[in-house]
């Protein structure tokens, strides 16, 4: 049966941190080419409908930890704090895989980005699942530890902001529409990337609750991956809409 290899956890976490820095260097100045940042010349290339693409991309992050748990003999997660942490990760990706795609109204998604997205979800799903299921060791009272409770509250707050912001974005478009409009309400009153801010808060909350290198590496990757996208969205809105609120920041209310 599979055993915990601390060296493997360290190597995979370090590589994830390096990938985060690579993402930051690639997309800080130029946004990744999909959605509102897609060049017209690229639109004829292979792509899938947004709902199908999001489902396929996010599915491995749910399936891989579930498979790792099923392969463990006996299949157990102890103590309760460890079970809850694994459930939080799978809960996010259950929503992202089986709920979010069927409500999204995004544009067709490039196959190349879908492929890399799936690879990342397999990689990160394995790293987080492997650590929690085979390596993590928590005291029996971890559920009452300040790191767990504060991290859990941040995770839930971030997930709530993320889901609410996605709902506000969906309401901007009628079925079949592909035009972009100014987001209104919720945290969009203060920042252009409210949905991204929510997801960043969510995964830093998870990292604090988990108090592990793999989770902090993933939170850092999330920040480096979608933080620049929030910045480019902000610049797009300012350039496209003359009536865009000048008081809004890109990602962090009242700061940036």
UniProtKB/TrEMBL annotation:
GO cellular component terms, A-Z: endoplasmic reticulum membrane
Gene3D superfamilies the UniProt entry points to: 1.20.120.1630
Keywords, ordered alphabetically: Differentiation, Endoplasmic reticulum, Lipid metabolism, Membrane, Microsome, NADP, Oxidoreductase, Sexual differentiation, Transmembrane, Transmembrane helix
Keyword GTP-binding: no
GO BP annotation list: androgen biosynthetic process; cell differentiation; sex differentiation
Catalysed reaction, written as an equation: 17beta-hydroxy-5alpha-androstan-3-one + NADP(+) = testosterone + NADPH + H(+); 5alpha-pregnane-3,20-dione + NADP(+) = progesterone + NADPH + H(+); a 3-oxo-5alpha-steroid + NADP(+) = a 3-oxo-Delta(4)-steroid + NADPH + H(+)
Superkingdom to which the source organism belongs: Eukaryota
Domain spans labelled 3-oxo-5-alpha-steroid 4-dehydrogenase C-terminal: 108-256
Purpose of the protein: Converts testosterone (T) into 5-alpha-dihydrotestosterone (DHT) and progesterone or corticosterone into their corresponding 5-alpha-3-oxosteroids. It plays a central role in sexual differentiation and androgen physiology.
Protein name (database record): 3-oxo-5-alpha-steroid 4-dehydrogenase 2
């Amino acid at each position: 049966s599979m055993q915990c290899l601390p060296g493997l956890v360290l190597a995979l976490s370090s590589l994830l941190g390096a990938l985060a820095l690579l993402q930051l260097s690639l997309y800080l100045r130029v946004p990744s080419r999909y959605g509102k940042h897609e060049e017209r010349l690229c639109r004829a290339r292979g792509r899938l409908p947004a709902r199908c693409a999001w489902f396929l991309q996010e599915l491995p992050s749910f399936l891989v930890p579930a498979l790792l748990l099923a392969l463990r003999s006996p299949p157990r997660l102890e103590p309760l704090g460890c079970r809850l942490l694994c459930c939080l990760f799978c809960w996010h990706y259950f929503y992202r895989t089986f709920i979010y795609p069927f409500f999204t109204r995004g544009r067709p998604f490039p196959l190349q980005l879908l492929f890399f997205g799936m690879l990342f979800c397999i990689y990160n799903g394995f790293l987080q699942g492997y650590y929690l299921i085979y390596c993590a060791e928590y005291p029996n009272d971890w559920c009452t530890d300040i790191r767990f409770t504060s991290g859990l509250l941040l995770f839930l707050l971030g997930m709530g902001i993320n889901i609410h912001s996605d709902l506000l974005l969906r309401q901007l478009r009628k079925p079949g529409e592909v035009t972009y409009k100014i987001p209104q309400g919720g945290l969009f009153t203060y920042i252009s990337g409210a949905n991204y801010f929510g997801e960043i808060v969510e995964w830093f909350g998870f990292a604090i609750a988990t108090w592990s290198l793999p989770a902090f590496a993933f939170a850092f990757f999330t920040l480096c991956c979608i933080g620049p996208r929030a910045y480019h969205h902000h610049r797009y809105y300012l350039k496209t809409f003359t009536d865009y609120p000048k008081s809004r920041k890109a990602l962090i209310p009242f700061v940036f």
